[in-house]
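Schema walk-through. Below, the input block comes first and the output block second. Nothing else is stored per chain. Lengths vary across the set, and this one has 236 residues.
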Amino acid sequence: MNPGAEGGLVRVPAAGAMLEGNLAIPPNASGVMLFAHGSGSSRHSPRNRAVARALNEGRLATLLVDLLTPAEESVDEQTGHLRFDIGLLADRLVDAADWLTENEETRSLPIGLFGASTGGGAALVAAAQRPNTVRAVVSRGGRPDLAGAALSRVRAPTLLIVGGRDHEVIELNREAFERLRCEKKLEIVPGATHLFEEPGALEEVARLARDWFRRFLATPSAGVRPSRERNREASS
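--- output ---
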């Protein structure tokens, strides 16, 4: 497997589809992050690739996978409805996480989920469905509110990252934050808009995500995947 920033091409069977993804495994990886894209994005998103590279540099493997097939993406470009089908996206994310637990190169690595936009909601639903598999969740400019009733069932420590100028999404994240019952934190990146395009904003997202995953993916012993219950909200 190519350990570079782009990663090697893999095909993942998930919820009745064969999904394409890029798996990058740096030397001595301490965990693997599964990316959930949303709102018309894909594994080719320059923002998610930038975050993935930063995680790789921090000895974290990454799997960037398209949750929609090319045919579905074509339909979604016209209708926009599949990107909001949180049930479908979450089912495929669960299957991709299961694939990581079975794949020879990643089965020994603890798993975290990184969700962007509507992918944030899908990541939380998937975490609720796989409490013994998903060790941590990070949402970037996400819509955790779309996880609905699943929010109260999430056990994985969850970090919500929102841009300081993304006012509507801040409120949606605060509402979802109150419904989470796991260890949690809300980070607001000052001056950043929804896509974190401002200088230094995406680098801050990558730093926060790397630190969160490093903290909660450390395993005291193989096969032990504890859940935590402390709660915390912060702005920075």
